[in-house]
Amino acid sequence: MAQDHYEILGVSRTATYEEIKRAYRRLARDHHPDANNNDPASEEKFKQVSHAYEVLSNTEKRQRFDAYGDERGPQGAGGFGDFGDISDLFSSFFGGGGRTRSGPSRGADVLAEVELTLEEAAQGAEREIEIEVLSECPDCEGAGTAPGTFPQSCFDCGGTGELRQVRRTMFGNMMTATPCARCAGTGQMITDPCPRCNGAGRIPLTESLTVQVPAGVDDGARLRVTGRGEAGPRGGRSGDLYVSIGVLPHDVFQRAGDDLACEVPVPMTVAALGGLTKVPTLDGHEEITVSPGTQSGEVVRFRGKGMPRLNGRGRGELVGVLRVETPRDLSGEETELLVQFAKLRGDEDAEPRGLFGRIKEAFN
User: Fold this and answer.
1) Residue 97: strand, helix, or coil
2) Are strands 315-325 and 259-267 parallel, antiparallel or unpaired?
3) What confidence tens digit (pLDDT) does each residue in 186-212 have?
4) Quick one: which of 155, 223, 266, 269 could link to 243 by a disulfide (CB 3.0–4.6 Å)?
5) In what order do the strands lie in the sheet with 259-267?
6) Contact assessment for residue 194 and residue 146, using Cβ atoms and an 8 Å cutoff
C-alpha cells in the first residue's frame, strides 16, 4: 500500500511549504543514520521521511498524490502502467541513465589570510576574521521562492534537468543528453521569486568567525573550515573556508621546518679564554659554557627548543651558530695591552692602525 506522506511527516493535508520543511528537518535530524549508530530502523525511517518531503515539497507531485494517492498519478505519470515513467525505462536498459537531475550545486570556497608572528605560530593563536560571502537568504531559507509558493517543474525539460535528442547516424539512432539551459540542470523553475534575494536563495553578507590556529603552523599553510564558505544556490551544500597562514620574518631566528637557527655573539675575550654566554630561545635565554679557543662558525644544538610539531609530538631543535665579535673603538690602554699580547704571540704584523700608523705607512 502507498504510504501517507502527510502522516509520515506528521503534518496536516493543508500544511504550508514552510510547515512541511520544518517537519522534515526535525525528523531528518532525529532519524539520521549517523546520529543513531546506523540503526536499520532509523535508516528506513530516514528514507521514508526524505521521500515524503521530496513529494510534498514539489507542487506537481503533491497535487498528484492528493488526487490519486500516488505521486505518479494513474498508471504512472507517463501512462506506462507498471513500467513507471520514462526515466524507469531508461534505467532498465542503461543502468540508471534516466533522470539525471543534477540538483543544487555546491557553494564556492572562500579564501582568507591571517598573519602571525613566529612566537604566535609557536604557541598557537586565535584570530577573529571577517569574510564576505553569499549566505542563505533568511526569508526563503535558501529555496529562492516567495513565501507560500513552490518551485515548478521546468517547462523545457519536464523536470528531468536535461534535454535529449535522437539523431540518425550510419550506426543507427543515437541519443545525446545535455543539461537544460533554462533550469541549469536542476529540473525546477522559480516562477514566484523571493523578493529579498530575487530567487537566488542567497544574499551577500559579511560574517565574523573565530579561527583557531594550531601551534607549529608554518608559513604558507592552509587551514580548512568545513561548511563556512558560500552557501550553495537553492539550498545546495555550502563550500569551505580556507585560511592561508603567513608567518612574519623574525629578527633573531630563521626557520627550517620544525627547526630554528640563530647567531650567538661571543666576545673575543670569552672565545679566547673560555667563559659563559647566553643563547636566545623562544622560551627565554639559555646559558652555555664556551670552551677556550672557540672559533666563529662553531655550533651548539638544543633539542626540544625549536618549533612545536603539528602532530603534537615534541618540538624541533635550535641550532646556535657562534660568532666571535671583534671589539671596536679600543681605548689607549686596551690597544697597548693587545699590542703586548701580539708580541708575546709573535704576531709581528699586528700593530695599531690609528693616525700615527697610517702616517708612518705613507712615508715607507
Assistant:
1) coil
2) parallel
3) 788 888 899 998 888 899 999 999 999
4) 223
5) 254-256, 259-267, 315-325, 299-308
6) yes
